[in-house]
Each structure stands twice: as C-alpha cells, then as structure tokens.
Design goal:
single chain; 206 residues; Thrombin, subunit H; 3 helices; 43% strand; Phage_69_Orf23_MTP; Phgtail_TP901_1
Length: 206
C-alpha cells in the first residue's frame, strides 16, 4: 500500500476574480495572503415513522474565509467592490503539491458573494483583511494550469546580487548566484578577512 502524502496548508494558494471580468482578464493571486478556509455543510433531518427513522438531507452550503494583509493592489480593491456593490466573485483554492498526469494543478473552484469583510488596522501591526464568502451552488473540483509567471511568483529560484543578463535561467545562477541545494554546503567556512572587510565597508572600527 502506497504511503499517504501529507499536504502542507501553506501550499494551498488562493486566486480571485470578479465574475464580470472573466471575459477580459485572468484571475489573480490573492496578494500577501494568510489563511484560507473553506467549509462544507449538509444538514439532515430525521423523521420518525412506525417502521423506523427516515433521514432526509438538505442542500449543501459552503463558506470561504480568506485573510490577507492589506496593500495597494487590484485584488484588494475588488474585494471592496464585491461587498459594497454586491458583485459575484470567482475563487480558486489551488494545491501546489498535487498535479495530474498532464501537469495540471488540483483546485477547488467556486462562485460566491462576499458577505463580510472584516478589517483590522492596529497601530502596531500591518493592516489585515478577513473577507467571508458564501458560495453560490456547489463548488467544483478540477485541474488547472498555472502560468510560468505564477509559478515563478510562488516558487522562485535563488538569485545573486549582480545584474540579471539576457534571459533569466531561473536555476539559481542568475545574478552570479549559486542555489543552496546545488552547492556542497558542508565545505562552507568563515573567510579570514570577513570581520575586517565588513567593518571597513560600513565605516566601523575593528
């Protein structure tokens, strides 16, 4: 029997779009996102008869909770549009650790109404938003393609400090860098002139 692979919550990422914009723009990654939660509930009613109980299921209800840190972004503004102007949104929860045989990523897709957008503006922390969405109908499961740009945003390669010349290789060597996993880090040492050079460059004293 194959070992069951656990899936990390941080590898479930959220995308968002106003339904009215589906014909003219692609969905966008929710920026600076925190936790994502989707809950399914189907209540049932039990009726007692002379020959036993009969259980009747009600319709499915689903709710989405999404948190993200406030920033100047299109998605942030459109969450305002969604609740203030009662617009239908599209929402995707994408699992970056599950792909099918075509290399497409497993996802849950839903259309929803934003029913609450709690905002927190504390003096000692970053502003935070916590929208709640009530799903319209039944969420759908499927597989989707992430663009190279999206994948680079979510799993970008290491880069050095130098200029990136020509076409980025995204293999850890751009900017005169070397990716950690491609280096023999067991041979790392402390350079003999590290303290002197650092202090000199910062105008300090040794």
């Amino acid at each position: 029997m194959a070992e069951v692979q656990a899936l990390a919550g941080k590898r479930m990422v959220s995308y968002f779009r106003l339904l009215e914009n589906a014909r003219k723009e692609k969905a966008e990654l929710v920026p600076l996102q925190g936790d994502s939660d989707i809950s399914f509930k189907r209540s049932s009613k039990s009726t007692t008869t002379k020959s036993g109980n009969i259980s009747t299921s009600a319709g499915l209800t689903a709710e989405i909770d999404q948190t993200f840190y406030e920033g100047i972004s299109k998605v942030s503004d459109e969450f305002y549009d969604a609740i203030l102007e009662d617009k239908v949104v599209e929402y995707w929860l994408v699992n970056l650790d599950r792909v099918n045989d075509q290399g497409k990523f497993w996802a849950i897709y839903a259309r929803a109404k934003v029913t609450e957008d709690k905002q927190s503006f504390k003096g000692d922390s970053t502003a935070e938003r916590s929208p709640k969405m009530e799903v319209i109908g039944t969420p759908r499961r499927g597989y989707l393609t992430l663009s190279d740009y999206d994948q680079d945003m979510l799993a970008y390669a290491f880069r050095g400090l130098d200029k990136v010349t020509d076409t980025p290789k995204e293999d850890g060597t751009d900017g005169d860098g070397v990716a950690y996993e491609k280096s023999d880090h067991t041979k790392d040492t402390v350079p003999t002139n590290a303290t002197t050079d650092t202090a000199t460059n910062q105008g300090g004293n040794v």
